[in-house]
Amino acid sequence: MSLEKVVFGFFILLAATLNFGFVWGDIDNPVHHDAWELFGALVVSLIATVLKLGDRTQVGAVHLATSLVADLQLIAAAVVWVHTSSAGIEVGPDRMASIVSLAVGALLANLVSVTMLVVETMMLRR
Amino acid sequence: MNSAIFVALRRLRFPIILLIGICALGMIGLVLIPGVDENGAPWHMTFFDAFYFMSYTASTIGFGEIPRPFSYAQRLWVTFIIYLSVLGWAYAIARLLALLQDRGFQQTLVQQRFTREVRRLREPFFLVCGFGETGMQVCHALDRMRMRFVVIDLREDRVAEVDLQAFQTDTPALTGDARFPQNLAMAGLEHPACRGVLALTSDDGANLAVAMAGKLLHPGVPVICRAMSRSVADNMASFGTDHVINPFDTFADYLTLAMNSPGKHRLTDLLVGESGQRFRPAPLPPRGHWVVVGYGRFGREIVTCLDAEGLDVSIIDPAPEIPGRRHVRGTGTESGPLRQAGIERAAGVVAGTGDDVNNLSIAVTARELNPRVFVIVRQNLQANRSLFDAYDAQLNMVPSQIIADRCVALLGTPMLARFLALARGQDDGWAEELAGRLEALVPGRVPELWDVRLDLDEASAVYRALVDRDGEVRVGTLLRDPADRGAALDCIALMLSRTRRPELLPSRELRVRPGDRLLFAGSVEARERQRSVLQNANVFDYVHKGREIPGGWVWEAMTRLRAGRRG
Fold first, then answer.
1. Interface pTM (ipTM) of the complex?
2. Residue A47 to residue B21, Cβ atoms within 8 A
3. I need a labelling partner for B187 at 20 to 30 A (CA). Which of A96, B75, B233, B563 fits?
């Protein structure tokens, strides 16, 4: 067991779980979706991306690609949120629906990443 | 993506994560800690406000307290976060600088740039391994011939020298061991535009490795090798290295030629020199008693050559014993051993040690003792050129010059080697006469040499006439002046090569066929004029048939029509 592997797995999994936690609930209900969770998901996703940098293998490249997709989707969700609340109004159900749907896209990318991590681990047979 | 970026990203992973972490931590604190607005009511920053604040604070831009003045609790947190982010950035920048100064990383960058430069080469180029004295001379000659080349050398200072030489074109240069195939591959060995490989390092083993790699990785590309020892030269030749140049052997050969067949010697001198340079016929070494100082690789070749001529040879060498030979012990720089070796009655002396100063000293002493003696002096370093020029020996043997001249002759006109080999088989009068004709064409200069293949690329007009119109073209046609077809160009067709047996000095009446290769020698002007004959159909028709044919497609078609009606 190496610390590097633990950290790597931890961040990938945490990115997926935070993302899932944010998305879980009614898609257009602002009460079910917390800004803190989106913030957390974005930060952890960024860290996971940096951790994946510099791996030249094919698997490493796909890993990095999924992370970049997740980052992009989460940043888009955050931008929509910031833009909506800039007028000083609370985020309504229609805007919340678009924010959450963007975050669901990120969740899909994160799930791919987690699946790859699991498959990779199984392939090692150790 | 290129590997330098990968290396950089991997090394900078931790600093980047640290910066993200600091930014996130700062944002959390800013969003959580309440401020107080002008009415005394608490307010909270949004995530975007916090991100904005962190962005301009961490990067030391500092727009101030936005969106409204902070409370003391917020300021306390901001103070903490400022110090933290400054530390984070300092650390990240320090790591980045360390990375940039890292030798391994720099090497990766340099290699990458080199590989990209080589990959983007579109014009034909030569791969020169070894940028010592020989390599540099060859590169300068290639540069004058407007050919491109890639340099690879083991020593960094020599590679740096490539930039200082001010070549006309950009020369990609790599510091690396040419013995490793991956370095050769990086330098474009397998590149489709690679026209030849020149192994010119001072290490015979490395040259051998380069020759082998060249033959295996890019079969068909000519390989020219420098070899100092006979066994390595034989080894190279055994697997089909195209040309192996051993400067000592070449010189000994040259000496033999000069003694036996002055005509061939003069012809070779004329053809192997660099085109356009002043040509001064080399003085011929006399027969008689010879004193050879220094019995190393060079001395041995010379003695073998002199022995074969049946000449009387005395050797001076510091070695205590030379098997099978009597010799005078000593360095030859003092008059004692020279006298003992019979310098007073000698016809010639060879100063052939590996030390330039000693060679000059020997030569000066020998001339003092016998002013009429023919002096051959070996010059090892190009740097000492002025000394040797001042001394003005009858023959100056410069190994790097010999190799460079050979390389240039072989690369510039690949047919030349074949021609010279065939010329060897002719008698001396033939060579004498040909040399005389060449000297008359280009007085006092080395003539220009060029070869032409009668195909669409190099001689489209001739090729079309031969193939499309089924015409008869004779060698003489190609030697006519396009300005006045009655006059001849200042050039000679040296060789026509069609099948295995090339024709030396083809007669003007000989018919050429498509795909024939011809070797010409003459003035630069003749070459230019001949090019228009070969390429321009109208000029060719004038030279060929003596009539002016209208240019342009319409007129051509009408002429053809009229000709058809008539016939």
1. 0.88
2. yes
3. B233
